[in-house]
Amino acid sequence: MITSLSIENFALIEKLSIRFSNGFTIITGETGAGKSILLGALGLVLGKRADLSSLKNKEEKCIIEANFHLQRYNLKPFFEANDLDYEEETIIRREILPSGKSRAFINDTPVNLNELQQLGDFLIDIHSQHQTQELSEDDFQFRMVDLVAANASLLQSYSAQLKEYKKASLSLKEKKEQLATVVKERDYNSFLLEELIAANLIADEQEELELQYKKLNNVEFIKENLSKAIAVAEDEQFGVLNGLKEIKSAIQKNAAVASECEILFERLSSVLIEFDDILNELLLLSDKTISDPEELERINQKLKLIYDLQKKHQVITIAELIEIRESLNNKVVSALTIENDILSLEKEMIVFEEKLTDLANSIHDNRQKAIPVLIQKMQAILQDLGMSNARFDIQLLSKSDFASNGTDDISFLFSANKGGDFGLLKKVASGGEMSRIMLAVKSILAEYSNLPTIIFDEIDTGVSGEIADKMGDIMRKMSANMQVFAITHLPQIAAKGSDHFEVYKVVDTEQTRTELRLLTQDQRIQEIAKMLSGANVSESALNHAKELLN
After folding, report:
1. I need a surface site. Which of 55, 196, 202, 484 has the fewest CB within 10 A?
2. Do 447 and 477 meet the contact criterion of CB atoms below 8 Å apart?
3. pLDDT digit string (tens) for 411-450?
C-alpha cells in the first residue's frame, strides 16, 4: 500500500508531502481545486508519460516520490526478475527535468517506464468514472471470472505453453515456406547435380587434358619434326653427331702440343655426351609419338563437356564447378532435411495442442463453476445498492483456436428490470447503474485479488441518497482487506472514511497553488456540511454532518 506521497513543482503544486493510513481515505474538494492533479502525480509514479506542461516552474525539475509498504504482497519475485533491490518499504521516484527528459527510480535504481508500469499494475488500481466501460470488454470480464475461479496458476501454465506453441507454429510455417521454395527448384537442381556428378570432375585436370589434346591433335607435325631432327643428327656423312666426333678428334690431336686445347677438348667431350643423350631422347620420343584417334576423341569430348558446364554455370575453372556441385548437393539434401524437420515440428505441435487443450478445459471448467458464484455475489451487492431486480447472464462459448486466455468466448449480458430481456451491458445499463455494477465488481475482486490499493475517482457519479450511503459502506468494507481511496462529491460517502483530506486552492497576489490537508473531526463536520448545503453552511447541515459521521 502507499504510505506517503511527496510532490514538488508539479502543475499547481509547489511542494506537498502527505502520509496515508491503511484504511478508507476520503479526498474531497471543490471542482477545479486540484483533485485530478493528485491522480496525475500518482500516474507519473506508476509509469505514465510526462511532458514539460507538468512543471509549475519551467526552470526547475519536478520530483514526485511515493513510498509503498510491500510486505504482504509477494512482489519479491518481480524485483528479482528485473534485477532490482527489494525493500519492504519501497520508494518510487519520478523526475521531470526542465529539458523535458524524464527519469524514474525504484529504490534509487534507474528503471525504464515499462518496468515502472509493470510494478504499478501490482500496486494501485486507479478507477475513474470513465473506466466503467471496461465492464463491456472481454479481457476485463475474463479477469473477473478468472479471479473468482482461482485460475491464475492455470493461466500462467497455459500462457507459457501457448508461447512455445506459437514459437513452434512460426517455425513450422517458415519450414513449409522454405520447403515450397526448395521443392520448386529441386527437380532442376537435381538435374544439374546429376550432370555435374556424371562429369566426374577432378580438380586441375583441365590443364592436363588440354596439353594431351594439343599433343594428340598434332602427332604428324611432331613426328615429322622429330624425324627431321634425328636425320640431321644421325646422317653418316653430314650428321651432327659425326661432325662433333670429328671436331673432338681434331682438337684431341692439338691438345698434345697446345695446352689451351685441352680445356676445349674436355668441353667438346661434355657436349658430345649431352648431344648423344638428347638424340636418344629424340629417338625414344619419336617411338612414343603415335596417332591415337580414339584417345583424341575421348579427350576432345571430355574438354567439350567441361567447357559446356563452365559456360552454363558461368565459371572458368573446374574448382568452381566442384563448388557448385557441392552446393547443389546440399540444396537437394536440404529438402529431405526440411521434410524431416516439418514432421518433427508437426509432432511437437500435436503435443502442445494436447497440453493446451487440457489446460484450456481445466480453465473452462473452473470458470463454469465460478460464474454462478460471481453472479450471486454481484446481484446480492446490487440489491443493497437499490438494483433489486438486476440480473446477469454470463455464458462461455467454446472456440477452436487458442486465444491468450484459453478457448472461451464470453457473453456478459445484463437486465435491470424484472421480466426484462437480457442485453449487452454497455447498451442497456445507464451511467448510474454502470457505476454501481463496477463498484460491486471491484468489491468482489477485492476479496480474491492481492492488490494493495484501489482509488475510486468519483465512481459515485449518478447516484445519491441511500444508494450513496450503501456505496460508502461497500468501500469501507473493502478497506478491511486493502487500502481504499475515494475521491467524491457525496457527503454520504465522505462520512464513511477513516481519514479525510481536503484539496483546495490558495490564491495570493502572484500565483495560484493547490494544497492538501488532513481534516480534524471538526473540520470534517464543516466540510461535509458544506457538501450538504453549499458555501453557506446551515445549522441543520452541521447537525446532519454530525449524524453522518456518527
Report:
1. 202
2. no
3. 889 998 887 888 888 788 877 788 888 888 888 888 888 7
Alpha-helical (H) ranges within 199-259 are 205-216, 219-234, 240-255
pLDDT tens digits, one per residue of 459-501: 776 677 788 888 899 999 988 888 999 998 899 999 999 999 9
CA distance 278 to 280: 5
Other Cβ atoms less than 10 A from the Cβ of 391: the count is 18
Nearest residue to 443 via CA among 155, 151, 148: 148
User: Hey, which residues does 25 pair with through a beta bridge?
Assistant: 485, 499
Report whether 439 contacts 471 (CB < 8 A): yes
**Residue 6 DSSP code:** E
Given a contact cutoff of 8 angstroms between Cβ atoms, the answer to whether 120 and 45 are in contact is yes
Please name the amino acid found at residue 492. Answer: Q
Cα 491 to Cα 517: distance, rounded to the nearest angstrom:
18
Q: How far apart are CA 284 and CA 310, in angstroms?
A: 38
User: pTM of the prediction?
Assistant: 0.66
Q: How far is Cα 367 from Cα 370, in angstroms, rounded to an integer? A: 5
Element (H, E) at 301: helix 293-313
Residues in the chain, total:
550
Give me the DSSP letters along 407-453. Answer: EEEEEEEEE-STTPPPEEHHHH--HHHHHHHHHHHHHHHHHH---SE
d(CA 256, CA 324): 74
Residue 169 to residue 139: CA distance in whole angstroms? 24
By the 10 Å C-beta count (0-12 exposed, 13-18 middle, 19+ buried), 180 is classed as exposed
